[in-house]
Amino acid sequence: MLKGVVECKKEKVRVFQVLMLKNDASQKVEVQEDEQVDFLRVQEHLQHGGSVFITSKRSQKIALPKEKKALRNKSDEKKIVFFYFDHL
């Protein structure tokens, strides 16, 4: 018989933002948000001369003013991970 309750934390789904930049006169940017990165599409975009910026939506943070940064606890700081491709 189960004597205790096991508590499981539900893992948050990681969502990636893929920004595909066109390096032509239009300078258009296409933004995709998904749980997986379509690297075949990224490769195709790069072969056509575009640039690609990939980041995790969870990792984005707004910069604090300098006076508030000094007061913030160092253990609260997190790293931002991103990738930028302009060719393969």
Radius of gyration: 19 Å
Strand order of the biggest β-sheet: 2-1-3-4
Helix percent reads 10-25%
What spatial form do the alpha-carbon principal axes imply? globular
Which regions contain 5 or more consecutive residues with pLDDT less than 50? none
The first-to-last residue Cα distance is 57 Å
Please summarize the sheet with the most strands: 4 strands, antiparallel
The whole-number mean of residue pLDDT values reads 76
The ordered H/E elements are: EEHEHE
Give me the oligomer status: single chain
Helix count equals: 2
Count the beta strands: 4
Structural class: alpha+beta
Percent strand equals 25-35%
What attributes characterize this protein structure?
globular; 2 helices; alpha+beta; 17% helix; single chain
What does this structure look like?
By secondary structure, the protein is an alpha+beta fold. Helices cover 17% and strands 25% of the residues. The protein has a domain at 14-59 and 80-88. The protein has a four-stranded antiparallel sheet, covered by helices on one side. It is globular and about 50 Å long. The model has no long low-confidence stretch (mean pLDDT 76).
